[in-house]
Description:
- This protein is α/β, with parallel strands linked by helices and 555 residues long.
- Helix 4 packs across helix 18 and helix 15 packs parallel to helix 16.
Amino acid sequence: MITDIEIARSIALENINNIAGKIGISSEDIHNYGKYIAKIPVSLINEQKIVKSNLILVTAITPTKAGIGKTTTSIGLALGLSKIGKNAIVALREPSLGPCFGMKGGAAGGGHAQVLPMEDINLHFTGDFHAITSAHNMITALLDNHLYRNRGTDRFLKEIVWKRVLDVNDRNLRYIVSGLNGAANGVPTETGFEITPASEIMAILCLSKDIDDLKRRIGNIILGYTADNSPFTVNDLGVTGAITVLLKDAINPNLVQTTEHSPAIIHGGPFANIAHGCNSIVATKMAMSHADYVITEAGFGADLGAEKFFNIKCRKAGISPKLTIIVATTQALKMHGNVPLEDIKKKNTNGLIKGFENLDKHIENIKSFGQTVVVALNKYDFDSDEEILLIKNHCMKLGVGFALNESFAKGGDGAIALAEKVMEHIDLKPSQRLSYTYDDTDSIEIKIKKVVTKIYGAASVSFSSKAKKKMEQINRMKINHYPVCIAKTQYSFSDNANMYGATKGFEFTINDIVINNGAEFIVAIAGDIMRMPGLPAEPQAKHIDIINGNIEGLS
C-alpha cells in the first residue's frame, strides 16, 4: 500500500508565487521560504471581504487514539469545493513535533488529501514553533535573572507561575528543580516544562489581531506574584518589546498548497485538550479575505475544539461559521458502542447503533450554538454498505445532512458529494446567529459549570481548594469576563479517558485553574490531564528515518 509520504513525494509542486496568484496575492507581497512555502503579511487581511466569505468548521465525534480524520476531511472538502468550481481555502493548525514523533507521525492530512510539502510542514516548517518556544523560554531566563539579582529584596517574588516549554513529549521534564549546586547557578526553584502548544505565547499568537495586539498581550502575561499578592507581569520585567521582536515573523500566516495545488493557509498550533485547539485568528481572517469558502478545523472532538472555537475564538474574532461538519468513522462509533478496540474494524451493527449516542450528543451540542450540521463519514475500505446506510438513515431521522468523504483514496473527486451537500445546506439553511454557552458577565465558576453540564453532560462540578483560591484571585483581579478553556481528556465527554459513549450524570473535577492574562482566558484543569505529554511504548520516532535523501515514516 502506498504511504502518505510516497503520495506527497509523487506530486510535482507548483511555485508558491503561482499559488498566491490564484487567490489574488502578488508575489511582491509575500515572503518566500524557498520555492513552495511563503508567509503572508497580516496587513493583507481585508475586513470588508471577510463578511462576505463563508466559513465552515470541521469538528468530530469523540475520537479513537488513532484520530478521526478531521484534517483529511478539511483538506478534502477544500478540494471537493474546488472541483465544483468554488473558490476555497483550507486554514489549518501547524503540526507539533511532539505528536509527530510520538503517536501520530504527522498531521498534514492523509492519502490524496494532504497539504504540501508535507515533510517541511510536519517538521520545522517556517520556524513558528521554534520562535514561540524561544520567546517563552527567553521570558523564563529573564525572570530567573530577575530573581537572582533581587534575592533578599522586596523585588523578589514569593510565587512563580511561569515554567518552560519544549516541543517534544518528555514526561521526565514535567516536574523538576532548577538552580541547584550553589548560588552562582541561580535560585533553586521547583518548576517544570510544558509542551509548546500549551504555551500561553502560542495562545496569544493565535488570538492576536496584529503585532501591536501581540505586544499588548505579551506584556500582560502573569509570571508570578509579589509579597503583597500583586501580579508580576512581562511588562513589570521590562522586556515586552524584546519578546515581541522574537515573534515578528511568526505572527504572519503561512501559505502552502494541497495535493491538487489549491491554496492552504497553516498557522498556529494549540492542542484542544490542553489549550483552545484552533489555528490563528489572523490565518482564518486571511483565508476569508481571499476566498469565498474557508474550511477550518478545531482539534479533537467537538466537546473540546468546537466548544472553544465558538466560545473563545469566534467570540474574540467576531466571526461565525455558516455550517459545521461533524466527522465520524465506523471505528469510533463502534468504540463508543462498547466494541473492544481490537474489533472496531470488524462489522458490528449493534455496536455501531449503540455508538450513535456519542454522535447524537455532539450534534445536539453543535446545534446549541445555532449551527447547521452536516455529518461526514470518513470512509475506510472495510466499511460495509449496510453500516454506511445505517449512519445515513440515522442522520436523516435527526434532520442533519450526511455525506461520505472519500478524499483519502480519491482526492477532490472523493469529496464532491460532501462539497455538494455543504453547498446545499449553506444555500438553503445557513447557520443563524451564533449562540454561546455562557455570557461574558457570568462568573468563572458559572462559566465552567455551564460548559461541563451543557456540553459534557455532567451532573455536577467539584472544585479543589486550589481551584477555589484561584477563582477568588480572579474576582480580586476583576477578570471574570474572560472566557474559560477547560483542559481535559480528549477520549471522553468526562474527565475519565475510559468513559466512552455519551456519559451522563457524572461528577466533573476541576483540580486547578491557570490565569492566562495575556491570552485573556482562564484555563481550568480537569482530572489528571498533563500539559506535557509522554511518549507511547512504541514511539513513531522509531519508524522515522532518512534514506537516500528521502524522509520515511511521516504520515
